[in-house]
Amino acid sequence: MKTPKVSVRHLKKSFGQGEGRVEVLKNINLEIYSGETIALTGKSGSGKSTLLSLLSGLDAPDEGDLFIDGENLSRMPEKELTRFRASRMGIIFQQFHLVSTLSAYENVLLPLELMKHPQAMNRALELLESVGLSHRSQHLPSELSGGECQRVALARALAISPSILFADEPSGNLDEETGGKVMDLLFGMVENTKTTLVLVTHDPDLAKRCSRVVHLEHGSLL
């Protein structure tokens, strides 16, 4: 029987204090297999981004277990979890989250240097070329357009050849044409590298491009 790459068991998450606590995720159970592209859909406030934060280890659940590649992230010490994320995961945010004082090249180089990649400089340059930005390598994020920043973020997320890629509305801050080009690039690179993708999106057309759609409503999977 095929072993899931991601296994979520009875995951719960709430925010607030005392009687004011709001249960955002209710008893989530989910399995994702290697090479799958999963779209997380649902209305605003349904818990999509919260679930992505838990899956990527950026936040911890109140209850439940999260296994990725057989490792239980919900029981992992913070230092070990940070190392696991750095070596196994790529994350793309709607707001890009590039380091403003670093050039495009340096932003892509950063995760490679942290992982002591033996060919870090060459790898960073190759990735920038693959997203069509080798000519903008020395520009700061403030000197790049939104679409260019998101392409740098994509190159950075794929730098370590992650086994799983998380993307939270990656085209949400871009105009339709630019967003379409970035998403074409994302899906193309994911397909070429056989990387597992978990994509939060409100766009039904983007969701259809994924191999499976998982819909959230009021904190529960449908």
Task: Write a short abstract of this structure.
34% of the residues lie in helices and 25% in strands. It is globular, with a radius of gyration of 17 Å. With 222 residues, it is an alpha/beta fold.
Layout of strands and helices, then pairs:
Layout: E1 6-15, E2 22-32, E3 37-41, H1 48-55, E4 63-68, E5 71-72, H2 78-88, E6 89-92, H3 104-114, H4 120-130, H5 146-157, E7 164-168, H6 176-193, E8 196-200, H7 204-208, E9 212-217, E10 220-221
Parallel strand pairs: 3-8, 3-9, 6-7, 7-8
Antiparallel strand pairs: 1-2, 1-4, 4-5, 9-10
Helix pairs in contact: 3-4, 3-5, 4-5, 5-6
Entry keywords:
222 residues; alpha/beta; Rossmann fold; six-stranded mixed sheet; four-stranded antiparallel sheet; 7 helices; 10 strands; 25% strand
